[in-house]
Amino acid sequence: MTAPVLDVRDLQVAIGTTPVVRGVSFQLAPGERLGLVGESGSGKSLTALSIMGLNRDPIRVSGGQVMLGGTDLLRLSRAELDRVRGARISMIYQDPASSLNPLMTVGAQIVEAINLHDKVERGQARARAADLLGDVGVPNPRQRLDAYPHEFSGGMRQRVMIAIALACQPEVLLCDEPTTALDVTTQSLVINLIDRLCSERGVATVLITHDLGVAAGFCDNIAVMYAGQLVEQSSTSTLFASARHPYSHALMSATVDLGVDVTSALPAIAGQPPLPGAIPQGCSFRPRCPRAVEACADQPIELLPLDGALVRCIRPITHHPGSGTHPGTARDATVGPPTEQERVPNA
Amino acid sequence: MQFVIKRVVISAILLVATSVLIFAILRALPGDPVAARLGTAQGVNQAMIDRLRSSAGLDRPLVSQYFSWVTGMAHGNLGRSYFTDRPVSSMILSALGPTLELTVLGVALSILVAVPAAMAAARRPRGWLDRSITAIASAGMAFPPFVAGILLIIVFSITVHWFPARGFIPLTQDPVQNLRSMILPSISLAAGAAPLILRYLRSELVTALDSDYVRTAAGKGAPERRVMLRHALPNAALPSLTMIGLITGYTLGGSVVVEYVFGFSGLGALSVQAAFRRDYAVLQSVVLLISALFILVSLTVDLLGWWLDPRTRGHRG
């Protein structure tokens, strides 16, 4: 296996003293697309912002490592971090309307992204900015360089954000719900654009979304987050065909029923996710889990390998036809040994 | 563009309304300019009083007095002082210089102090630096300009003799002495005005630094200094402009008092003198001039903000 471009190890993030991201680890291979899905509040965005070092008080990283190539981004000084951000790792944010400086032309904002890492002369930087704006599909890029953000539509602003993020050919692009603030018709255009540009440039991507339809179409692998932890990670096809964790299974089933091309929000799952600071002992999903038994409360559950996936559950769903043990298992289950004993923890 | 027209029209209406109000209030005040001028002079008879009244136009109906004041103004003729008989326009002109200079220097000094202090404070809200700066600002605000002025005179003029305590030397006569005589009065004014600008700009900066576009800038790899100066400060300064307009008005009022403390013969001294003498001819024009300056500054600042903000200035590109 090739060395990962991004290797997040046991990332811990806290708001004040309350842990909100509780030991997230994942690796991103060159050119890979990883989806990070989960309900709002599950810590997806905080994970991305922490990787970029963009957290604000009182949110701070309390542990772990973020290895980009050979360097741990969490150990860098601000000046060192400034040389990495925007150059080797970039981010696209949720709300393009507020993410651009309203007082600067979009040209100036793209040129800034270029000049911070590449001291090229003015005309050259402007030409590059125009090329970028053209690449992201803004019509009349040369003229539009002198326009202000308010003169762009939401979708066009997000395209500008993509141009800024890709200005210096990063190795990794973090997309934090890049289409959530856009209207439905623009969403797929923007996702397709990210898809195409990242393929062309070989950029490894983390896509944070609560839209499983988008994740299914875009990602090679998906990591499901719940209450600040990864509960399942596997290839997209495996996850949609046979999610093992009851939480991800509940997520998938409703979406798959509708068809993955339907952009749908996460299906409702009975109960509420736990509040940070009030996370139950043992498995955090236990209070909402139809399969929970007493043993689930005993001790923290490990994220362990299971059939090529990683699952954080001591009673993972084993897919066999016709089992109706909980809503949503009836349809796509596959035959498999129905026991927990097959899991051999080898951590 | 509509905004500009609307703003100019409103300012004009405001100016006319102010002139009516000033005129009415001064006439409603007890006291009589002729009586004030004659004071306790011996041998005054009714005929003399009537002659003085009519020569000043005080026997005419109020409406006609108002209109002759306003039409005279249009020709640069503000009438003559009821007391000294000197033309009001020349009295005002000689008093305007010190007041304007003091106001401009006071506001400039306030901005010069407030902007860096606000940036330092906003970097870490509720940090020790923020708390110290806010505490010093509150202390500065607690001193009325004349108290600050007196304290400064005691310390820097009487105790250490660094600066003159009183007097105004015109800029045209001796620029160095002029500035020396302006330092203490400007500080007295800035002591009250700078904290106001500081507190407003600080809170705008805190908002701006917390915004998504500042996060974008940091995500691009912009150093902290650039994030502050290029992204946060312009966005915070724009709404603060209106505040600076208001503070200029406040400073204009403050300079009237400060002049008095430092013995400048500016608009302050002129208006106090005119008020005691019930010299409406002088007082109404001085008060109107100060009001007009205030209206003009607010208008300028609003138009400047409109022009600097691409969202309001209109579409391009």
Question: Can you tell me about this structure?
Answer:
The complex is a heterodimer of chains A (about 350) and B (about 325). Chain A has helices spanning about 45-50, 80-85, 95-100, 105-115, 120-135, 140-145, 155-165, 185-200, 210-220, 235-240, 245-260; strands at about 5-15, 20-30, 35, 60-70, 70, 90, 170-175, 205-210, 220-225, 230-235, 305, 310. With about 350 residues, chain A is of the alpha/beta class. Chain A folds into two domains: about 1-90 and about 175-270 and about 285-345, Rossmann fold, CATH 3.40.50; about 100-170, no CATH class. The radius of gyration of chain A is 21 Å and the shape is globular. Chain B has helices at about 1-30, 35-40, 45-55, 60-75, 90-125, 130-140, 145-160, 175-210, 210-220, 225-260, 265-275, 280-310, 310-315. Chain B has a domain at about 95-275: MetI-like fold, CATH 1.10.3720.10.
Short description:
Chain A has 347 residues and is α/β, with parallel strands linked by helices.
Uncertain stretches of chain A:
258-266, 322-347
- End-to-end separation of chain A: 20 Å
Task: Determine the fraction of residues in helical runs of chain A and give it as a percent range.
Answer: 25-40%
What is the SS-derived class of chain A?
alpha/beta
Instruction: Point out poorly predicted stretches of chain B.
Output: none
- Could you give the order of the helices and strands of chain B? HHHHHHHHHHHHH
Which assembly state applies to the chains in this document? heterodimer
The appropriate CATH architecture of the largest domain in chain A is 3-Layer(aba) Sandwich
Main sheet of chain B, how many strands, which sense, barrel? none
Kindly state the number of beta strands of chain A. 12
The N- to C-terminal Cα distance of chain B equals 18 Å
Instruction: Identify the overall geometry of chain A.
Output: globular
Encode the helix/strand succession of chain A as letters.
EEEHEEHEHHHHHEHEHEEHHEE
Q: Report the top-level CATH class of the largest domain in chain A.
A: Alpha Beta
CATH superfamily of the largest domain in chain A: P-loop containing nucleotide triphosphate hydrolases
Mean pLDDT of chain A: 87
**Tally of helical runs of chain B:** 13
Radius of gyration of chain B: 24 Å
